[in-house]
Amino acid sequence: MRTLLTITGALALSGSALAQQDNVEVDMSGIEIAFPYNDQVRDSINNPADGSPELINLAGGYGFEITGDARVVILLIEFYNGPIEPLFNFLEPGLGNVLRGFVRNDPSGLPPAGGQTWSESFGGGLFGGEIIVTLQIATDAAGVVTVGAVDISSDLGILGSITFSNATARLTKWDPTPTQVNEWHFNGDLGAAPESEGAAIRYLDESAFGDILVGEDNDGVPDPTIPKDVTAAQSSFVDTALDAGVPSINGEDDIVLLTSPAFNLADPAKVEHRRGVGLVCFPSTRPQYPGEFVGKWSMVWDLLIPASSWFEDFPVNTTVNPFLTALVQTDSDNDNGADLWLRFQGGQPGIIWSKDGDDFTVNFVALAIAPDTWFRLAVVADEFQVGRARVYLNGAFVGETASDWLAGATDSTAPTYADGETLMAGDWAAWGQFPSPWARSSGAMNPGFDGSPVPAPMNSTFCMFADLRFGGSQPVYLANYLLSDGLLSDAEIAGLGGASASGIMFSGGGCNAADLGEPFGVLDFSDVIAFLTAFGSMDPAADLAAPTGVFDFSDVIAFLGAFGAGCP
User: Fold this and answer.
1) Could you read off the pLDDT of 150-193 as tens digits, one per residue?
2) CA distances for 192 relative to 201, 397, 482, angstroms
3) Where along the chain do its domains lie?
4) Whole-model pTM over 0.85
């Protein structure tokens, strides 16, 4: 479990006669996390770092960085006195990356009344106990920056404290790069669409990546006895035109991926043999997006859950599986429970974000899905500004669940470990220009609180259909998958409509669901005529909104939304 540390930002309008600048640095020295755990706050007016401007203009986006020293005292004994980043790395290798990053503001701008600009959470233990703290960075519209340690609690009581010295929080104006979209069609292989050059999905347990790591929450120890290449053997590509058991997608046949279950079929109960089973995704984000983790992202899946996976007692079909499938496991090396689930609970299917599968009682969103039926699911996660994810089914918004960030520390043009250590000669080529989920650095550049080396992972992938903790993910059919390192709008999601054999955004034809007539790549009157023609003939091309198979006013609204959103 990560040490719980939440970094949030909020914007509230106020006036000031001072001019806004491109950066502000707030002095954090003297902030102390100690009993009785009172909130402590600093701001850029009263506590600017030496030479720092007092006001900032965040404009379209910003970078942030927290630097300095921290002193840790337990039972009056000084356990650590040094840079903040190694202390974070002691809590979790590579965690120091969260002390710096980049945030795109919402395209519609920050709300006039103010609003949250950055929120992140981490959890774990410290010296046999747990310290919970919210480090807060806030800015009002006048540009005043506020930094604080708030909502502090600890089971160490009066015995422990953390004090910051020579520490600052720096915000810098950033002109955001365009969001990037990666898409996969699974037409017989795991290759990305041509428009997604650099993005890749691989089988998690490929032999090229080396020995799989042992157990859960381990220290990076490889286990050569864990079987490799199991995922590929337990997966297959299926042509809906040739397999009578798999329906076409809205009347169109397609080649789709049947995913592996999240366990080794040869020994389903053996936990360590689940570690490498699943897919691992390396999105193309860097170097265009400079942050080492992505706190705003969108994902879209075209899925079908077969009855054999839906029901525990198939073919009797009376008992539904509580675990349907694991969509996202944010850990790059599948060392715990999956985080984003399709589950059956409370008598209905739905989606839920539960970090490591710890709590399935909150954040559940019911979904009107059924076995042996194609559907398009979209999740738009704004971890930085609202700490929530919006969920859509076949283009329609259905509710909100929790969220988290995605790692993105590896730049394919200059790959290193998360701690900055250069790869050994030949490793990147041996792994197929893909970050090995099992590899670790020497730790020489990533010292822990006591100065000893802490090996770091590459921290630039996440897993899909993988779940070490429960092995709960069942096989599903996957026709298409999309990942963006930004937020798709409600109109853009509505424009994508329902599941399609041709793809999501990159279909080789239109740029979105409204781009139905030539010339493709532009939305014009020919698309209106094409939609009206398809709608009148009940062509699936015009079936853009739920319920699938029904042509009604909701399809018209979806078309208008997609048409208005324009081409990406």
Assistant:
1) 777 777 666 778 899 999 988 888 888 888 999 999 999 999 99
2) 8, 27, 10
3) 5-173, 181-483, 509-565
4) no
